């Protein structure tokens, strides 16, 4: 099981001093977070993709390429790659390049984002959101697996005899997670391709998460990729920790109350009760996170966000606690009782080994056709 952190790249304002973090400081802070995560032995660093203030990561491949040169073992991922508004040809080439630079330590989480105006900013119509996610990913899937692609779709100009360059490292495309909070069509899409499904559940009650993951697992099995409990699932979480729970709540409350995403919503206590937000002791974080398995079954990736509105000093303190006190216990506890047939989170190495084993058995590789809107609707 993989454990890591993700950042949406929000520029913060310190509620105590009123100091607004600069974009430069936030970008450099994200690099330092990733480097420390690598040193602490975490598995994954993921960045969001946003094109509006107060967020800074508008170019994930640039940021992750820089981090790749400064880390050794960390898997570099996106917390969202906007499959709806990015051109799939550019995604194919940008992330294949990053894959080469990072020696395979790359995967992606496809999503539609949560900022409605991003569609017209990039010449798209939000009413086409699901169709764009389906069509664009079908093209991307082919671009990474076919050397020469002829393509005709609804939402972009046709391609004739096109080859995306560079080709994926070792002929193995980056693993893809499809991220969604509320759209069953995306869970269906992930299942159709046998890809991962990441439910970024940090704002949602567990009952909703259970339904979405269960749908994905059923459809994964339906499409013949394996048993339902072998489907590749990831979850999110948000934490703030101190040795005493009352200190954690007291310190975190001003950041919560002035947060870009939480302000003017439910109270801290209500949010903690109805979502995975855990503000308390490391032991409480461990107990809460272990309960996720009771809800969705054995899963492959757990990512935490630590920096929604917090200054760097506090974020780095939380990262130390996570890496030294929380994750080692979670690794041990999640391993207990985990069935042998439940797969680990895919990596470039494991995907390459599986491809080579398949080639050795069959002497060839096959390619499934694309998924259409009408298939997702079922």
Topology:
Layout (H helix, E strand, L loop, with lengths): L1 E6 L15 H17 L4 E4 L12 H9 L6 E4 L2 E2 L5 H14 L5 E5 L6 H4 L7 H17 L3 E3 L7 E4 L12 E5 L4 H10 L2 E4 L6 H17 L10 E9 L3 H13 L10 H7 L3 E3 L1 H15 L4 E5 L6 H24 L12 H15 L10 H5 L1
Helix pairs in contact: 1-11, 2-3, 3-5, 6-7, 10-11
Distance between the termini: 31 Å
Q: Main sheet? A: 10 strands, parallel
Give helix % range. 40-55%
By DSSP (H or I, 4+ residues per run), the number of helices equals 13
Give the uncertain stretches in residue-range form: 365-378
CATH superfamily: Luciferase-like domain
Average residue-wise pLDDT:
93
Cα-atom radius of gyration: 20 Å
CATH level-1 class: Alpha Beta
Along the chain, the helix and strand elements come as EHEHEEHEHHEEEHEHEHHEHEHHH
How many discrete domains?
1
CATH names the topology as TIM Barrel
Give the class from helix and strand content and strand pairing. Answer: alpha/beta
Q: What's the total count of β strands?
A: 12
* Broad shape: globular
Taken as a percent bin, the fraction of beta residues is: 5-15%
CATH architecture: Alpha-Beta Barrel
Q: In words, what does this structure look like?
A:
This is LLM class flavin-dependent oxidoreductase. Keywords: Monooxygenase, Oxidoreductase. One of its GO terms (molecular function) is monooxygenase activity. It comes from Actinomadura logoneensis. Pfam families: Bac_luciferase (PF00296). The protein has one domain: TIM Barrel, CATH 3.20.20.30. The chain contains 13 helices and twelve strands. It is globular. It is of the alpha/beta class. Strands 1, 2, 3, 4, 5, 8, 9, 10, 11 and 12 form a ten-stranded parallel sheet that branches. Strands 6-7 form a two-stranded antiparallel ribbon. The longest helix has 24 residues. The C terminus is likely disordered.
């Amino acid at each position: 099981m993989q454990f890591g952190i993700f950042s949406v790249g929000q520029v913060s304002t310190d509620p105590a001093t009123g100091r607004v973090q600069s974009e430069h400081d936030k970008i450099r802070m994200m690099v330092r977070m990733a480097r420390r995560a690598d040193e602490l032995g975490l598995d994954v660093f993921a960045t969001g993709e946003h094109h509006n203030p107060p967020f800074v990561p508008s170019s994930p491949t640039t940021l992750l390429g820089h981090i790749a040169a400064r880390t050794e073992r960390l898997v570099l991922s996106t917390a969202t790659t906007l499959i709806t508004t990015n051109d799939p040809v550019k995604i194919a080439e940008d992330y294949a390049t990053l894959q080469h630079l990072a020696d395979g330590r790359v995967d992606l989480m496809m999503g539609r984002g949560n900022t409605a105006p991003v569609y017209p900013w990039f010449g798209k119509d939000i009413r086409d959101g699901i169709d764009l996610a389906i069509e664009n990913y079908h093209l991307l899937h082919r671009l990474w697996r076919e050397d020469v692609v002829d393509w005709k779709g609804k939402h972009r100009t046709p391609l004739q005899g096109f080859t995306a360059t560079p080709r994926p490292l070792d002929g193995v495309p980056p693993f893809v997670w499809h991220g969604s909070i509320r759209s069953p069509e995306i869970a269906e899409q992930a299942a159709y391709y046998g890809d991962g499904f990441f439910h970024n559940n940090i704002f949602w009650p567990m009952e909703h998460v259970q339904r979405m993951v269960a749908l994905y697992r059923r459809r994964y099995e339906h499409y013949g990729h394996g048993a339902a409990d072998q489907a590749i699932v990831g979850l999110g979480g948000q934490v703030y920790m101190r040795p005493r729970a009352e200190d954690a709540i007291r310190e975190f409350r001003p950041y919560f109350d002035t947060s870009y995403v939480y302000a003017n919503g439910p109270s801290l206590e209500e949010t903690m009760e109805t979502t995975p937000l855990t503000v308390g002791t490391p032991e409480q974080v461990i107990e809460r996170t272990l309960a996720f398995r009771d809800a969705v079954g054995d899963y492959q990736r757990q990512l935490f966000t630590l920096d929604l509105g917090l200054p760097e000093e506090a974020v780095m303190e939380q990262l130390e606690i996570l890496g030294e006190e929380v994750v080692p216990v979670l690794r041990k506890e999640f391993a207990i009782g985990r069935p042998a047939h439940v797969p680990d989170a895919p990596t470039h190495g494991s995907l390459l080994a599986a491809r080579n084993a398949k080639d050795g058995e069959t002497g060839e590789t096959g390619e499934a056709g694309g998924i259409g809107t009408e298939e997702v609707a079922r």
